[in-house]
Amino acid sequence: MNTSRNTSGNRRKGVGPARRQHLLEVNVRTASLKRQRRGQASGFLWKIAICLILTAFLALGVWIGCEKFFFKNPEYALRHLVTHLNGVMTQEELVKLTGFTEGKNIFSLDLEMANQKLASIPEIRSFSIERTLPDTIEIGMEPRTPVFLFVTPGESEVSSQESFIPGKSFLCDKDGVMMRPARLDDKFLGLPVVSGVSLTNALPGKKLENSSLATALMLRQAISELPEETFRITSLDVSKPYIAVVTDASGAKFTFGTLGEVDMPSQLARLSKLLGHCQETGRRIQAANLMLSRNTPVTFVLTPEQVADKIAPVATPKKNPKHN
Q: Of 17, 111, 291, 302, which one's alpha carbon is 20 to 30 angstroms from that of 282?
């Protein structure tokens, strides 16, 4: 019994050194792997550091090269500012707005900032900025063409020249986009004056959504088909939702119906007939109501002879004196 137990114990003692040897080999391999991984990580970090250093030197070289050959090169100084402003502003105003001063380096000019500032001006419909090497900037502008001048309530019988107040008066183009110019331009002087449009929500550069303005623009578009030498709008009153009163250059007032699905072509046809009649006879219209399709009410301007006949006193027979 004792011998058997001793033999079993010897066997267990014989296995111990082998396991220790195995564990030692495992530890050695693990340490080796850790050293290899640390070496790989260190090598990778060194590669990244070298790449960053090389990139920094390359960027520095590029910056120095750009400074020398472009940004500080007198060849690229702005010498030619070519403008097509079409009356929107003067060249001095453009230079002040954009900073495109002669002599500045053409690459240092902030074109994006200039684009934003020009885009914010309501009087400009579209524009372009082109940089042409080595020393030229070309700017073109397409202005908004105003078609109406708006007056404040109670000023329906004024001319555009009398009504326009720089920086305060509103104008609009054919699309209803509002403008508020800071200075008077000759092209504003002959604009039709519109009354009856609420300007509460009017903002420069934005389209005014307003039914009265929509009526005025619709009438303008329709009347524009007539020859300008025969009919030119000077004022337009759209204060009432169902009619619009248009005054032409002769001072005649024409009432158009605007309520619902109006037959504008028929009203224009009646207007054309009246204008043709005036050209043939030399008569002048004082007022006409074009809403009625039959028997259009028309008032003509009386000639001096007609006025004299109208106001001439009626002759009364003289009484014979009584004889005593």
A: 291
